[in-house]
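Re: your question from the hallway

Yes, I did run it. Sequences:
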Amino acid sequence: MNAARPAEQVLWWLAAIPATMVIIVGFGFPLVQSLVASFTRDGVLTLANYELVYRLYRQDVVYTVLVAAAGLVLTFGIGIPLSGYLRLHHSQTAEFLLKVPLFVPFVVVGHAMRIFLAPRGTLLIFLHALGLVSQDTTLAISEGWLGLSIALAWKHLALVVLLLMGAFRGVGEEYLEAARGFGAGTLRQIWAVMVPMAAPSIGLAVVLSLTSMLASFSIPLMMTKGSGPQMLMIDLYHRYGLHGDFGTASAIGVVSYLLAAGAAYYYLKGVVRQ
Amino acid sequence: MNATVPPAAHQRDRPRGLLALVLRAALVAVLLAAVVGPLAGLVLWSVAERWHWPALLPQQVGLKYWARITQGDLLAALTRGVAIASVTTVVALVAAIPVSYGAARARLPLGPVLLMLFLLPQAFPQLPVFASAAVLFYRWNLAGTYAGVVLIHLVGGLVYAVWTMTAVFRAIGEDIEEAAINLGASVTRTFFRISLPLALPGVVASSILVFIYSLDEFTGTLLVGAPYVTTLPVYMYTASLGYELQIASVTALVLMVPGVLLLVLMERFLRAEYLAFFGRL
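Structure:
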């Protein structure tokens, strides 16, 4: 076998050090520091930061989970039937269009959606031009949960459809044929055959989207302007940037780690399996 | 796909042919509106010098705001971003290759553990960690410097580089390497003469991913680079804070150019597994 000679093994190890150091210095160490900072204030061990998080931000924790949940429902409510339909009826145009949001950076999505969903934004302008709304109409979703979840779903749908189509293509044609033989239509083939058979991949896609939505920062930052409930990452940014309160900011961070941790566990497990 | 469907199935489908065709056309139309709609708003705002509700098109259209690309702070942010992305890409690629190759060939003991380490920045919320990194960088005089921004971009960039290139090296047949080794070449020589040349297309794809990641990176740049190192995404955020919707829209469209170019050009060449990484930008 082609096992490397000991001297070469040392060489490969040495070559791997710089990249490893970057992750440790740029991510691992800061991660540990934020954990420590969340339990300290003025150099003393305390839970004061968490008390403040509970007092000021407990509603925002709920809000963040709800926005992410709404985003998930939208993404998969559209993504599953769409991917299933495209598995059965291939359409190059539709697949190309669906890939576009993958290539649009998060910040740009935030800005585009802010303009699109504003009280008198471009969506309303288009609807008015089509004669669907009157001149007095205003749209009040751009800063709320609905606008946020629409923007998050718009960005995430592309990746989800890509993952789901890959999984659905893995479902053998013979199973679908059998279902068709029993008279199953498109929807029936999706729900009764593709979804159960691709369940692990769907689970992974759900977890990937959920962690990303819970920790979303640039989209809400571009879309919201400060009043009402906020996403946790916005609270963290203000706590850190405006108040210079690194301890409380870190405690918010730890809450977000915990929210993501359960999901990340399955994410890592899924990736390892692949 | 249809080739595998027996004729009987087609026969049964036929009565629903028209309905299916209408459904399909409707689907493409809805998708087109949903995908292009928000982006069309950007284009309109980028040329709107005066636009009052409820007109479909701006009353006064011009390239006044587009002219900003050729001058001043927008151009500076663009060139700065390109410079940072270039350095980040080269460093990330060179640093990632030994890790990826080692992990792909199980030549590094603890390779799988190392790979997991390179997943960490994707598995955890980035903002709290980058805020913490900014505190550290401030202490080390790296805050507000190019070196600091490149370092924070490397964290995310390495994730893309290591994982895509591990997939690339895994895809190269091991037997051809074993042939070289059996003929007396060392592992290192085999790598440089056989594996790396074979992996070149994948390395190119990987470097494009890292380059675009760095160009679009917002969170880390905002926290570590402020206030001296402004790249385009941060510039766009500042413009949008000041309600300069036109400037922000021009910037947004400029930011989309590399990605859209890549989508159009590489539609045929880019394999789905690389594509999946784009979703994490």
